[in-house]
Specification:
The complex is a heterodimer of chains A (about 270) and B (about 180).
Chain A lengths: L1 E6 L17 E6 L5 E5 L11 H9 L4 E3 L5 H9 L3 E3 L6 H9 L11 H47 L2 H7 L4 H14 L4 H13 L4 H13 L5 H8 L1 H30 L1
Parallel strand pairs in A: 1-4, 4-5
Antiparallel strand pairs in A: 1-2, 2-3
Chain B lengths: L1 H10 L8 H16 L1 H35 L2 H8 L5 H13 L4 H13 L4 H10 L7 H8 L1 H30 L1
Classes of the chains: A alpha/beta (about 270), B mainly alpha (about 180).
């Protein structure tokens, strides 16, 4: 079986390091053969999340136990959740510790004190919330600039594009208008918020809901801009077929949506 | 370590290309303000009104986005997608498409991996089509088009995704023989 020991040096004669996450070396020792493997641990003491690399190392080496002087509650919980025993208050040389471990000299295991458990839960909940907020803010920040651009475009559209020009494209013929809407939606790309803003502006300018619905559907189902990426990953046949069928389906779906809406709302 | 910390902070900012479009529009506004100031001002006022209109639903969008980020993990989506070609598997693929977030092109390499691990074209097509249902944008869509319209469109989109998946599976099967 294999165990990880935090150590001050890269040899079996080195002393056990007192902090798991920030120890200079981590030694994976095979307790049967005394063969060992060394990981030099970056001592990035002040950086949040220091010790994650040590935890990942222990998990990836599929070890049975981690032996160290002290292990943070967060690291201990992560190790324990991967079925790794954590033994703390260990001292002496790596060699001595391995012998003591083989002789059953350590009685600590997965148990975490109540107050440590509460602290771990608090840390994990906080980390999840912070990470969720960070991801959402990042996604939002990516959406906003283009949305601001689209909103500015709507102002231009309302004041510089005449209704006559629009009606030369959207003539009032349901099938043709829906087809045009689907065409525009297929060419345009970006966050769907923009399709709603553009759709609402088109409705205000007298374009039919059939065309707007087709635009909204194809905006997200047909991706001419992303087509090269789809072809590269999923193949030419699949990508062309899928996008083509999405385009064709958008027209009956748009017509059916508006017809059902008219039927329900009256 | 210092180096990786810096690069991590850099990736959390929006990439530069998202600013190109609004910058072009601002340049157009600048030109129009010189040529036709009154019409340009009216356009800016119109945009301001649209902007005020989208702020409340945008706040909801952020809340739903946060909830999805907190409770839905990519690993869960992968698990749903690998559920096979049965009715249950297809419905789970649809669910995976609905709850998935981020740009579609991010998902293509993952689809490729899943296909290599045995996921069918139908499940992949259903997943990709259902990305049209944006849970986090539903408040925005309702604000613009009303909830009845949104419910009808959402239900029809899910149904159409299954039709799309069946057709893609049928044609790819025939052609590959």
């Amino acid at each position: 079986m294999k165990i990880v020991i935090s150590a001050e040096g890269a040899e079996l004669t080195s002393n056990v390091s007192q902090r798991f996450g920030q120890s200079p070396y981590l030694l994976v020792v095979d307790t049967e053969t005394m063969d060992f493997k060394t990981l030099e641990n970056p001592r990035d003491t002040f950086r949040p999340g220091a010790g994650v690399r040590a935890v990942v190392f222990a998990v990836s080496e599929d070890v049975e136990a981690v032996l160290t002087g002290y292990c943070s509650p967060t690291a201990r919980n992560q190790l324990a959740s991967n079925g790794i025993k954590v033994i703390t208050n260990v001292s002496g040389t790596v060699e001595e510790v391995v012998e003591k471990y083989k002789a059953g000299g350590f009685v600590q295991g997965l148990a975490i004190k109540k107050e440590e458990k509460e602290q771990v839960t608090k840390y994990i909940n906080r980390d999840i919330l912070v990470s969720g907020l960070r991801n959402s803010a990042k996604q939002f920040a990516n959406i906003l600039p283009v949305t601001v651009g689209v909103v500015l475009c709507i102002g231009l559209f309302n004041n510089f594009v005449s209704k006559e020009a629009l009606s030369s494209i959207f003539s009032g013929n349901v099938s043709l208008d829906t087809l045009w809407g689907a065409c525009f939606g297929s060419i345009l790309a970006g966050n769907p918020i923009n399709s709603y803003v553009i759709g609402a502006a088109l409705l205000d300018n007298g374009v039919s809901l059939f065309a707007v619905t087709a635009l909204i559907i194809t905006w997200v189902t047909v991706g001419l801009v992303q087509l090269p990426a789809e072809i590269a990953s999923l193949g030419l046949k699949f990508a062309l077929l899928r996008n083509g069928l999405c385009f064709i389906l958008a027209i009956p779906v748009a017509i059916l949506t508006v017809m059902l809406l008219n039927f329900i709302v009256g | 370590m210092e180096k990786s910390h810096k690069s991590k902070r850099k990736t959390s900012r929006p990439s530069g290309h998202v600013f190109i479009f609004p910058l072009i529009i601002l340049v157009i506004y600048g030109v129009l303000f010189v040529l036709v100031p009154e019409q340009a001002l009216a356009a800016l006022r119109d945009s301001g009104k649209v902007c005020l209109g989208i702020l409340p639903p945008l706040a909801f969008v952020f809340v739903v986005m946060l909830a999805l980020n907190l409770f839905v993990k990519p690993a869960q989506i992968v698990h749903l997608l690998g559920s096979g070609a049965s009715t249950k598997g297809i419905l789970l693929s649809a669910a995976a498409g609905i709850i998935s977030m981020g740009p579609i092109y991010v998902w293509y390499p993952l689809m490729k991996d899943l296909r290599e691990k045995g996921a069918g074209n139908m499940a992949i097509a259903v997943f990709l089509y259902n990305r049209a249902v944006k849970l986090f944008l539903l408040p925005m869509m309702i604000a613009y088009f009303g909830w009845v319209y949104v419910v009808i469109l959402t239900v029809l989109t899910v149904l159409a995704s299954i039709v799309n998946g069946c057709l893609v599976a049928m044609f790819t099967k025939k052609k590959t023989g």
